[in-house]
Structures are given as C-alpha cells and as structure tokens.
Write a structure and sequence with these properties.
Layout: E1 2-4, E2 29-31, H1 38-41, E3 53-57, H2 70-74, H3 80-104, E4 112-113, H4 117-121, E5 152-156, E6 167-177, E7 181-191, E8 194-195, E9 199-206, E10 211-218, E11 225-233, E12 244-253
Parallel strand pairs: 1-2, 2-3, 3-5
Antiparallel strand pairs: 4-5, 6-10, 6-12, 7-8, 7-9, 7-11
Length: about 260
C-alpha cells in the first residue's frame, strides 16, 4: 500500500483502525508532502511516521515550486483547472506527481535514512548505507526485505517542476594558488548519464590549500563521472589578476558510495 500524503484532519492521532497504518498490508510506504500543522498552516497531510517506510521529500512540509504567486500558478502549463487546484492544495498534490514521476525513473527519488531533514541537508546522512537507499514511489517495495527498524524515516530533495527527481552528490574541492581572494567557486559534473548545471560550492574568502565541501542535488544521474568543470570568479575587477585553481576535486555519489 502506498500512502500519498494521507490526510491529517480527523485522522492524525486516532487509533490505527481509523487511519492508514503499517498493519494494513505486508508493506506500507508513505510519501509526506504537506505535513505542517493544519492550524495555522493549513497542512492537509499527516506528519507522524505510520508506514514501514516514510518518505519526507524536501522535509515533508513545503514543496519547491509551490510558493509561486497565485496568478502564475493558476494560469499554468497544465491548464487553468490543474493550476487552480494546485494553488489550493499544491503541497498535498505533489505526492501523486512524485509517484507518477517515480514510475519513469526507477533509479530516482532515493530516500536517505536520517533523524531529521536538517541533518540530511547538512550532509550527516550521506551517502546511502551499505544496504542502499529505498526509492520513493513506485519502486519502494524493492526495499521490503532490507528494513531493520520499526519505523524508517527517509529524506530527499526534489525539483520545482517535472521532472522531479534529483540525484545527490558530495563535492569536495581543495584550492591551489598563491594568495587568498574573495569570490565564489562553481563546479559542474559531466558523466556517462549526462551533465549537470553549475553548482556553487563555496563563496566568500577563498584560501589556497583549503578544502571546501558541498552537497548538490543534480537534475541528472551523471553515472560514471568523466569530467568535472571548475570555475571561480572574484565578482569584481582585481588589478593584481589573482590566479586560483583546483588541486583536487572529489565527487561521491550517494547511491553507490
């Protein structure tokens, strides 16, 4: 049984006979997309973990792309009807959109086991454990025999619009150069599965020999990494023409470590 943002009002905190629960099937997976409190936040979805595995994409409360202004959302690509409906319950309805995207992307929507979304965002729960990460949505049941705990909370990030899946990478850059400069460092990944856009790894004071780490959520599964593009910029004209390079760049993929 897959619960697509099961309802919160009149169901949260009720006995298991009344609401969806892991005792309802051999395997129950839940996608939480609108689990903020109903009062005052108008969250329609249940927040506690109630399945064998519970996915909290983007933290489970506010979905990217749902904060658009009402006019642009109602007059959407999908037409006035879907736009109006999304404006009223955008977070709630993201659950079925993620699910339908998951059918097309068997390797997408990896959920990382973690105690909280904040810890996931800071990289504490990266990479996937040895048994791997379950895929949110249609292929979640492939993980059925690997569950070791009573409740399993899983976190991931998604895109703002279709196509929704993102793939998480840890990028570590050690700089080389003669002197420290102010600016930012961007990195793009190239691989057998496709190329990413540029992601900012760090900004501020850039010191040679220092190592900077960032977790990026790429819009493609790059597969085997073939090339990494490194760019830096110091934002303003510097008459001394400082030079900065990358001594090393390390890329770690979340799914296969």
């Amino acid at each position: 049984l897959s619960g697509l943002d099961p309802a919160q009002p009149y169901f949260q905190g009720t006995p298991i006979e009344v609401r969806l629960d892991k005792s309802d099937a051999d395997f129950v997976d839940i996608i939480h997309t609108d689990s903020a409190p109903t009062i005052p936040n108008l969250g329609f979805g249940i927040s506690p973990a109630i399945g064998h595995i519970d996915f909290y994409p983007n933290g489970g409360k506010q979905m990217p792309g749902c904060g658009k202004n009402p006019v642009s959302q109602i007059v959407d690509l999908d037409g006035i009807w879907e736009g109006t409906r999304d404006f009223v319950a955008c977070n709630h309805l993201r659950s079925y959109k993620y699910y339908s995207d998951s059918i097309i992307y068997p390797d997408g929507f990896l959920g990382y086991p973690c105690a909280s979304y904040d810890l996931f965002q800071s990289g504490n729960c990266f990479p996937c454990p040895e048994e791997g990460c379950p895929n949110m949505g249609h292929y979640a049941d492939k993980f059925k025999d690997k569950i070791k705990t009573n409740f399993l909370k899983l976190y991931l990030n998604t895109g703002e619009a279709r196509d929704f899946p993102l793939w998480r990478y840890k990028v570590t850059v050690t700089l080389s150069g003669r002197s420290k400069v102010k600016g930012y460092v961007n990195v793009a990944l190239y691989g057998s599965g496709g190329n990413t856009k540029q992601f900012q790894i760090t900004k501020g004071t850039l010191k040679p020999d220092n190592t900077y780490t960032a977790y990026i959520d790429a819009e493609v599964n790059v597969g085997k990494v073939t090339k990494v593009k490194f760019l830096w910029n110091n934002n303003w004209i510097n008459p001394t023409f400082p030079k900065l390079g990358a001594a090393t760049i390390t890329v770690e993929a979340g799914q296969n470590r």
